[in-house]
């Protein structure tokens, strides 16, 4: 039994080391989602608040799509390696606002991915039209490795 103790200790440490090696996921930078929309998170404050720009690839409006501001917050940025977050996009070209919530993960290949759900609220002219004013969806964002363009 005494000889098994060092073996079990080494085995325990080897298995536990995998959990310690998880890469930290950072929201700052450029991202693209499964629909081709681009998002850039430019600033991250020490309390987890952040700001950026969102450029959607899809829209129901006939107006020209423009870059729109986003504001959000990341939960416990100094504690969690794969943090939860939420942000709001105020669309500058339409009468709607979208809120996203999700989590930043590091996948098996060491690549960062954002798994999100969103609610898009459009303006309703009358209370009877409220039923069709909110849409819900899911997006997955992958990091863009290219440097930020001027103006982003």
UniProtKB/TrEMBL annotation:
<keyword id="KW-0732">Signal</keyword>
<dbReference type="InterPro" id="IPR051764">
    <property type="entry name" value="Avidin/Streptavidin-rel"/>
</dbReference>
<feature type="disulfide bond">
    <location>
        <begin position="25"/>
        <end position="104"/>
    </location>
</feature>
<dbReference type="GO" id="GO:0005576">
    <property type="term" value="C:extracellular region"/>
</dbReference>
<dbReference type="Pfam" id="PF01382">
    <property type="entry name" value="Avidin"/>
</dbReference>
<dbReference type="InterPro" id="IPR036896">
    <property type="entry name" value="Avidin-like_sf"/>
</dbReference>
<comment type="function">
    <text>Forms a strong non-covalent specific complex with biotin.</text>
</comment>
<keyword id="KW-0964">Secreted</keyword>
<feature type="signal peptide">
    <location>
        <begin position="1"/>
        <end position="19"/>
    </location>
</feature>
<keyword id="KW-1015">Disulfide bond</keyword>
<dbReference type="InterPro" id="IPR005468">
    <property type="entry name" value="Avidin/str"/>
</dbReference>
<comment type="subunit">
    <text>Homotetramer.</text>
</comment>
<comment type="similarity">
    <text>Belongs to the avidin/streptavidin family.</text>
</comment>
<keyword id="KW-0092">Biotin</keyword>
<keyword id="KW-0325">Glycoprotein</keyword>
<dbReference type="GO" id="GO:0009374">
    <property type="term" value="F:biotin binding"/>
</dbReference>
<dbReference type="InterPro" id="IPR005469">
    <property type="entry name" value="Avidin"/>
</dbReference>
<protein>
    <recommendedName>
        <fullName>Avidin</fullName>
    </recommendedName>
</protein>
């Amino acid at each position: 039994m005494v000889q098994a103790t060092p073996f079990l200790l080494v085995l325990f440490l080897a298995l536990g080391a995998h959990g310690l090696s998880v890469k930290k996921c950072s929201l700052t930078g450029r991202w693209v989602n499964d629909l081709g929309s681009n998002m850039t998170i430019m600033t991250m404050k020490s309390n987890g608040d952040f700001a950026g720009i969102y450029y959607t690839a899809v829209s129901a409006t006939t107006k020209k799509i423009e870059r729109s501001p986003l504001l959000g917050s990341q939960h416990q940025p100094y504690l969690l390696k794969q943090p939860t977050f939420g942000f709001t996009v105020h669309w500058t070209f339409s009468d709607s606002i979208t809120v996203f919530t999700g989590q930043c993960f590091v996948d098996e290949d060491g690549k960062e991915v954002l798994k999100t759900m969103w609610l898009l609220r459009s303006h309703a002219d009358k209370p009877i039209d409220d039923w069709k004013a909110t849409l819900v969806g899911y997006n997955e964002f992958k990091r863009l490795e290219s440097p930020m363009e001027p103006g982003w």
